[in-house]
Amino acid sequence: MDEKAIHEKKRIALTSVIAAVFLTGFKLVVGLFTGSLGILSEALHSGLDLVAAGITFFAVRFSDKPADGDHHFGHGKIENFSALIETFLLLITCVWIVYEAVHRLVTRDIAIEVTPWSFVVIITSIIIDFSRSRALMKVAKKYNSQALEADALHFSTDILSSFVVLLGLVASSFSFYTADPVAALIVAVIVLWISIQLGKKSFDVLVDRAPADAYAKVIKILQGLPEILDCHDIKVRQAGAEVFVSMNIHVPPHITIEEAHRITHVVEDAITANLPNSKVIIHAEPDGM
């Protein structure tokens, strides 16, 4: 990956850390001042987002290091591992939110003070989260970065949960205080769902499960190449932003080594042109032998 791409990934990750610091502090102050569980749960969520953003920042710094003598396939899986850690952080958020919400509903300790600052902090959060999630997802898709994608999902989750808390605050302003812990429980459900999806995706990469979309794309490319007669042992794995592809192809018998080499380059070029950040290893063998 070139220096421009690495710099862009680091820059967007750093801005996420700064945004998370601001949102965590803002929500914590307002949450403690008003006693709103919804806002406090948002503060904890943003606090874990801050930790996750920090993990992402360091992950993108080290994951783009080139392959070396000890890491023949590069350091890309650092990104996938960081995404898995972020999943556990989100699950911790869920446990705390559910515990506090159920406790308040059972003890009926649900009265909160709704002030204009309650609405200011949530609306500000939605605006910042929206801009951050879009910027992160744009760079994540551009460079196939799972760490940045996980960070984008964190901010996207904040948008959904903030809307729920906002509804809870509106209801509480009309003395319907039960809405606040109920809103917090809805936040927990949203976070749990996102956590499961993110965790599964990260775990699949870490255990080298073949990415279905990349595998299907490789098959389609091979089927459209008349230069090869057959292919087998097609294997696809992902590590960070890179996709590693290996295969055996059958070429016409009795052709020269130079021609067989040319055909392998045709196959390799076709795959790398349609599958960004891919590394291809091809073994050519004569058909029927």
Elements, N to C (H/E) = HHHHHHHEEHE
Q: Could you tell me the mean pLDDT? A: 82
Number of strands: 3
Strand order of the largest sheet: 1-2-3
Would you state the CATH class of the largest domain?
A: Mainly Alpha
What does the radius of gyration come to? 24 Å
Helix-strand category: mainly alpha
Question: Can you say what the CATH homologous superfamily of the largest domain is?
Answer: Cation efflux protein transmembrane domain
Give the N-to-C terminal Cα separation.
Answer: 39 Å
> What is the second-level CATH architecture of the largest domain?
Up-down Bundle
Q: What profile does the largest beta sheet have?
A: 3 strands, mixed
Shape: elongated
Percent of sequence in beta strands: 5-15%
Q: Per CATH, what is the topology of the largest domain?
A: Alpha-lytic protease prodomain-like
Helix content: over 70%
List the domain count as a whole number: 2
Question: Uncertain spans, ≥5 residues at pLDDT below 50?
Answer: none
Number of helices: 8
Textual characterization of the structure:
This protein has 289 residues and is mainly α. It has 2 domains: 3-206, Cation efflux protein transmembrane domain (Alpha-lytic protease prodomain-like, Up-down Bundle); 212-286, Alpha-Beta Plaits. It is 70% helix and 10% strand. The protein has 8 helices and 3 strands; from the N terminus they run H-H-H-H-H-H-H-E-E-H-E. It has helices spanning 3-34, 37-63, 77-107, 116-143, 146-172, 179-206, 212-223, 257-274; strands spanning 230-239, 242-251, 278-286. It has a 3-stranded mixed β-sheet with strand order 1-2-3. Strand 1 and strand 2 form a beta hairpin. The longest helix has 32 residues, at 3-34. The chain is elongated. The two termini are 39 Å apart. 43% of the residues are buried. The mean pLDDT is 82.
